[in-house]
Design goal:
10 helices, about 350 residues, mainly alpha, two-stranded parallel sheet, 4 strands, single chain, two-stranded antiparallel ribbon
Length: about 350
């Protein structure tokens, strides 16, 4: 029963993207936009499921009044002596469940389907299931979800980043093997350069959304008083203040200045100016690319014109039928026989010439 919520979320994360991929086929979008729309839908589905998990954990952690040890005194609330460990366990369950389900789906569905289609191509079942096409949003979504779990749970479960690295390595070689053996290229082309920027944007959005609950727990939620490295502090972030105050006076002054408004406002203005500068350069480069494309089109037309002129000049000139002189025929008689020739050289030698 402990793994029932992670299993439910993982199964929904597998079935609902299939529904999205089926719906987008009937919406008649371009390949690039179709990939982006499908990825946005699936990413927000995964993030929404994680958001529900985070909200449920937050309600369990802050449920009711707490005693001296930080344990809830209400009967309807869970007795969490160390809520940081409990949150880390729940996210760890999500990561392990996702790893098991993705590996099982790859080994138990993709490989048998590929073997069936290759070994028995004329079978009725092979024609029904067909060959598998490589779906980019689905595979990118697995990486994004794995990274989101790592960002969300690394603060509560320190070994989760190591598990994520092992998980990504296993996913890479497993996906590579199934791609080379069981998949065929997707018939819809896409531009990798544009989609790579979009994938980075999705990762940035995922990082921002996963950093919000972690920052809230560090700044607002009381740490557990019975266990953990922050049990003697009212807030988790105060450990940073104590560490800074323990430094010599000069580093403390520098760090206080870096955290003051006198440094933050000019730094923000400089960053905005740098961002505007790079945006202007990017816009100028895009305009230059458009001009170069137009120039290439004009040069191609000039080359075609020059080639046509060279071909016309190299062809031999042939006189037109109207400019050719009419051929006069000569008629001669011999023994009441009419002979018609084109030239005097065509007259036989035995015929007298007049």
């Amino acid at each position: 029963m402990n793994f029932l919520p992670p299993i439910t979320l993982t199964v929904l994360s597998i079935l609902v993207p299939v529904l999205f991929s089926t719906i987008v086929k009937y919406e008649d979008y371009s390949p690039d936009f179709e990939i982006r729309l499908t990825l946005i839908r699936q990413v927000f589905l995964r993030l929404a499921s994680l958001g529900i998990v985070v909200l449920s954990l937050q309600q369990q952690v802050q449920c009711g009044t707490k005693d001296e040890c930080g344990v809830s005194t209400d009967a309807v609330c869970p007795k969490l002596r160390c809520w940081e460990t409990y949150v880390g366990q729940q996210i760890y369950k999500l990561a392990v469940t996702d790893f098991i389900v993705v590996t099982a789906m790859t080994l138990l569905t993709e490989f048998p389907r590929g073997i069936l289609v290759k070994r028995f191509p004329e079978a009725k079942l092979s024609k029904i299931v067909g060959q598998q096409e490589f779906v980019l949003p689905k595979n990118v979504l697995d990486i994004v979800y794995t990274q989101a779990l790592c960002w969300l749970g690394s603060f509560y479960s320190p070994l989760l980043p190591f598990i994520t690295v092992v998980k990504c390595v296993v996913f890479f070689y497993l996906k590579k093997a199934t791609l080379l053996r069981n998949y065929v290229p997707n018939q819809k082309p896409y531009k990798a350069s544009r989609n790579n920027d979009f994938f980075y944007l999705v990762l940035l959005l995922t990082f921002t959304l996963t950093a919000i609950p972690v920052g809230y727990s560090v700044a607002k939620i009381f740490p557990s008083q019975g266990c953990g490295p922050f049990r003697s502090l009212p807030r988790m972030y105060e450990v940073i203040t104590l560490a800074v105050n323990a430094l010599p006076s000069l580093p403390v002054r520098i760090l206080h200045f870096l955290g003051s408004a006198g440094f933050a406002i000019p730094a923000f203005i400089v960053l905005c100016m740098a961002l505007y500068y790079y945006l202007a350069i990017s816009s100028a480069h895009k305009h230059m690319v458009i001009l170069l494309k137009e120039q290439l089109v004009l040069e191609g037309r000039d080359k075609q014109f020059l080639l046509s002129q060279i071909n016309d000049s190299s062809k031999p000139k042939v006189a037109s039928p109207k400019s050719a002189k009419p051929i006069k025929r000569k008629h001669m008689k011999k023994d009441d026989t009419v002979v018609s020739v084109h030239d005097i050289s065509d007259i036989p030698p035995n015929v007298p010439r007049y």
